[in-house]
């Protein structure tokens, strides 16, 4: 008979913002794209970079650094847009780099600590301590909420 406490793993896409690592559940990610032409949209929040046309779908792009209150993103070769789907709304999150898909065992995920750097704590749902890597797990609901 199986033990009641099952080892569950959470597949996460890990990405960089400045020198920190963040993660979002892979099932919410539709694609990871290089930066495409972004069309500015007047009178939107400062963290909204604009919109892109991705294979015929218009997707708003959020500068995740700006959204978290840790500056604006600088475009480099590594900059990526992570397309996520939240309540049937597709949004692109602009990040410094996205390069890992990790299985994060549930027992390594801890509730968010009292002080999470300078990042607005409301956007972090939990933290994973994986082989000396501290990975902050984002709450997509909070990041995307002003858009729905």
UniProtKB/TrEMBL annotation:
Name the InterPro entries for this protein: CheW (IPR039315), CheW-like_dom_sf (IPR036061), CheW-lke_dom (IPR002545)
A Gene Ontology cellular-component term? cytosol
Q: Which GO terms describe its biological process?
A: chemotaxis; signal transduction
| Occurrences of domain CheW-like (ranges) | 9-148
| Listed SMART domains | CheW
Segments passing through the bilayer: none
Quote the PANTHER family the UniProt record gives.
CHEMOTAXIS PROTEIN CHEW, CHEMOTAXIS SENSOR HISTIDINE KINASE-RELATED
The protein, known as: Chemotaxis protein CheW
Q: Which organism is it from?
A: Heyndrickxia camelliae
**What are the top taxonomic ranks of the organism?**
Bacteria, Bacillati, Bacillota, Bacilli, Bacillales
């Amino acid at each position: 008979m199986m033990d009641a406490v099952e080892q569950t793993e959470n597949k996460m896409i890990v990405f960089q913002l400045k020198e920190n690592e963040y993660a979002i559940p892979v099932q919410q990610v539709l694609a990871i794209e290089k930066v495409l032409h972004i069309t500015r949209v007047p009178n939107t929040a400062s963290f909204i970079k604009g919109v892109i046309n991705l294979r015929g779908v218009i997707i708003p792009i959020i500068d995740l650094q700006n959204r978290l209150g840790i500056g604006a993103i600088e475009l480099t070769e590594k900059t990526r847009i992570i397309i996520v789907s939240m309540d049937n709304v597709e949004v692109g999150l602009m990040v410094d780099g996205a390069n890992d898909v990790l299985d994060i065992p549930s027992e390594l995920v801890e509730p968010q600590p009292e002080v999470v750097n300078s990042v607005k704590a409301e956007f972090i749902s939990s933290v994973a301590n994986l082989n000396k890597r501290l990975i902050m797990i984002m709450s997509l609901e909070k990041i995307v909420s002003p858009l729905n």
